[in-house]
Amino acid sequence: MEVVSVELKDKPSIIVEALNISYYSKPKTIIRMGAPIEIQALKNISFRINKGECVAVLGKNGAGKSTLLEAIGGHIRPKSGTVITNGKVYTLKGANPGLIPHLSAKDNIIMMANVYAVPKDERESFLDSVEKFCELGNAFSDRDYSALSTGMAGRVGFGFTTSLNPQVLLMDETLGVGDEEFRKKAEVKAMDFMKKGETIMISTHSLNLAKKMCTRAIVLHEGNLVFDGSSSDAVQYYLEEIIKT
Amino acid sequence: MAIRKISHSQCFEGSEDLKVALQLDFLRAKYIVKKKNLAIIKSYKFGALWNILDPMLYSLVYLFVFIVIRFNTNPSSLMIGIVLIRGLQQCLVYGASSNLDFTAGLKIERMRTRVIVFAELLYISKLSFYHSIGCVLILLIMGNGLIVIPLIPILSILNGLFWYSCGRMISPQVKTYPDILHFVKYFGMLMFFGSPALYPLSQTRGLHRLVSLYNPFTYFVEPARWFFLGDKGVFDLIPEVGFIVLFFFFFTFILGIWLMDKQRWKWSVWS
Q: Which of A4, A66, A75, A168 to mutate to test the interface with B (most CBs of B within 10 A)?
């Protein structure tokens, strides 16, 4: 522990070194015996992300974008290599960050604020900030979370997670669930985030979003990191080298 | 600031203040249990009351069947057996299938394994406690002392934890071969009849008695019947088997919890 803390003091938020990740499944034989089937999702990935950077992860479906974010979030086991993160890491995947479907958004937020250690004296303002971001009107407290549209649910998820003030925020196609208005609000929130010196990684298919929001982007292709640079160069590389081929 | 190092062998998480971290993890465990409960009771008018009503009514149905139809004269004895066998069936199946979800939907942040351990133990304890309420009421109605109020729930919780731990031992196999779960359920059904759940050991004969003597469940139910009802079946138990059950209880319990982190990490990349 000492070694890690000294190494990371005031340094990168995320360090990925020689990361290999494979998924496994049993053979599809009747008795499911024999060597497991291995699918290599990430191959020898290395990069560093500094505090306050907003980095887009680009790539086709199956390139390894979600796997990379899951690995950084600590949700899956690497085959080899290491991931070191400095600060609270929150992953926002899809619309629902784990809220209870048959409770209202408001009740969910009150319960989850407790679970995510929002101090008691700040809970009211926390709830207000989420409600203000969501702009759901009466639906925020009257309607079950499951009865909200995907876009509305996405607002709640995004509003809640970002209001928790993580030091590292990983977003996996989250901004795709909302309308234009939501995206604009989310972008503003993300900018505020970066101003505070927090780190964001966004996996997205939206190249405009990547260029607009992110200063840097990495491109994944078939599990390999094939480009790491400014977001505009990355988009160009992605369009010319990955999409065209 | 929390530093996390993720490698093949583990996901190591540093913590600034252990006391605060433990308190937060316990809150999270409580939330996971609450969420599980809410998922079960969501559409019912009586809501959380079904946690108590369901095992109580189930036990009363059996009580009716075996007192009225089978002329078993001791409802207290029967109730103890039914409550514990229900705990066996539910906790064994729950333990065997517990590799299927390690997050309970708290997806934003990786939960420490101890959150899952707290949540699992809390859930089993709660489930077993609810099971025991009907039995406590019946025993009180039948004139047993107030001692049943703390002791029956404690016994039910220990019984639940034991069978949950046994289930956890086979959960990796269930993950690989989900069909095994069906056999676990049938095993639970077999235990209903191949144990002294319905009749005390002192009333069993032949093969039923022989099987019961080597059945770990007997070593929970018979001491309880002796303690509360003065049933003499406990003196027929084999002490060596009792010690093995006791050893196995601690062994499976500790091993099950110890393995949880490793299993969780391993299964994160398996489908």
A: A75
